[in-house]
Amino acid sequence: MINPMLKKHKSLFLVVISCLFIASCDSNAVFDEYQSVPNEWNKDAIISFNFKAPDTINNYNLYVNLRNTNDYAFSNLFLLVELNYPNGKAVKDTLEYKMAAPNGELLGTGFTDIKENKLWFRGYKTPFAFKEVGEYTVSIQHAMRNNGDVNGVENLKGITDIGFRVEQAQK
Questions:
Q1: Could you tell me the sign of the dihedral formed by the alpha carbons of 72, 74, 80, 83, in that order?
Q2: Phi, psi of 21 (to 5 degrees)
């Protein structure tokens, strides 16, 4: 007879392995990386990601990924996102993302108090193709302000990880 605790641990082990296998089988991802934010995200802290252009032929979707907790106190998020090309060209955008429903419930996926958000950066309305071969850099900085304040929020609470993802667009 098999010990019930051993059977329970074996089942848990199989579930964990299955989840890891499913998560690792993401054929669309060309680049997917996260960086953790210690405690709070300072307004001067710039999170950067370096990656090589996969090719100059196909179209790609580019995303800013965020993980946040219930400590995130805003209904939206403003980000400064800069894409630096291999030839030195830089394109900087100020982007706004909706982070909460009208009732205050945080958006995103996840069963725990950590929510994951996949936010469009490029490829949403028009296809995005890398025009140059070489290494690109994406820099992300928050630009949050309290209503009526001129100065930005010094330390943004509730953001735990910032990521960047490049996926091959579906044809």
A1: positive
A2: -65, -45
Q: Of 140, 33, 57, 37, give the one whose Cα is nearest residue 97.
A: 140
Q: Alpha helix (H) ranges present in 25-161?
A: none
The answer on pLDDT for 16 being more than 60 is no
Q: How many CB atoms lie within 10 A of CB 117?
A: 21
pLDDT digits (tens, 9 = 90+) for 61-111: 999 999 999 999 999 999 999 999 999 999 999 999 999 889 888 888 988
**pLDDT attached to residue 98:** 94
Which stretches does DSSP call E strand in the chain?
29-36, 40-42, 47-52, 60-68, 76-84, 90-98, 115-122, 135-142, 155-157, 159-168
Do the beta carbons of residue 64 and residue 141 sit within 8 Å?
Answer: no
DSSP character at residue 124: S
CB-CB neighbours of 58 under 10 Å:
14
What are the chain's domains?
Answer: 28-168 (2.60.120)
**Is the pLDDT confidence value at 12 over 50?**
no
Neighbour count for residue 41 (Cβ, 10 Å): 23
